[in-house]
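just leaving the lab so this will be short. what follows is a protein written twice so to speak, once as letters and once as structure tokens for the fold. can you read through it and tell me how you think this chain folds. anything you notice is useful, everything is just below:
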Amino acid sequence: MTSQAFYPIGTPGQPWGPAEIAEWRSRQVRHRSYEAEVVSKIDKLRSRFDVVEYGVLDYAPDRYPLFAIKSRDWRDDLPTFLVTGGVHGYETSGVHGVLQFLERHAADYAGKANLLVAPCVSPWAYERIHRWNIDAIDPNRSFRDNSPAQESAALIALVAPWRERVLMHIDLHETTDTDESEFRPALAARDGKPNEPGEIPDGFYLVGDSEDPQPEFQQAVIAAVAMITHIAPADAKGEIIGATVVAPGVINYPVRSLGLCAGITNARYRTTTEVYPDSPRATPEQCNAAQAAAVCAAIDFALARA
């Protein structure tokens, strides 16, 4: 089923040009503060971790420094784990779940693992509660050479020295009701294509890599999260967001060919979390806790097999 649902920018069937992107940008409103809600929490971690500024988004008149947190006791003989959040700025628990992990759990891995953590990859979008960056580009389709998204390019450069050494990468996301009400219609309008309505799953799920799915790893993460919040069931077609459910709460995508963040290293274990914050069965606190639990379970599984 397709629909030419009205979107207030552009002409149906015609991709956006610079004028439409400029109009879209003019409509974006700051709703929250990256400095107050994210950077202030990162600053509190400086006594325990090394904080690295790995880039700056110069989106005049705004300027957004990009921060990563590294283990202070980094050792070349220890396995390295990459945790990323806020690739899509509107996915709140992706950011605050990372911060909760750092505040409450990361110290447990001191002397056991090297942690490299980027809590908020897309701060401009975080403030505007949006999926895209300032140029109407989705960073999570842009993790490739010569990326058109500054956010993606900066993270690729940060990770490059450890690309071959990362053992596990977990990227924290959400699936929200606004995916259907705003972001998919906007995507269809931007690309001049018909909108294809989908179904939002109620619950937590994971997106593994179809080229290297690591099913035991995925199920270990699902089992840990199931103790905190509910796992999304398959729909009537046996799918979640159009992909076949291969195990409870798990689907697979070809992450590299899609330019997804989960494909930026050669990690043996990689996954993308998806929390559903709009569920009547989940609170914001549960969503953050589920993300943090997923990170711990992913590290624990990989560490036990390092």
Summary: The chain has one domain: 18-304. The longest strand covers residues 49-59.
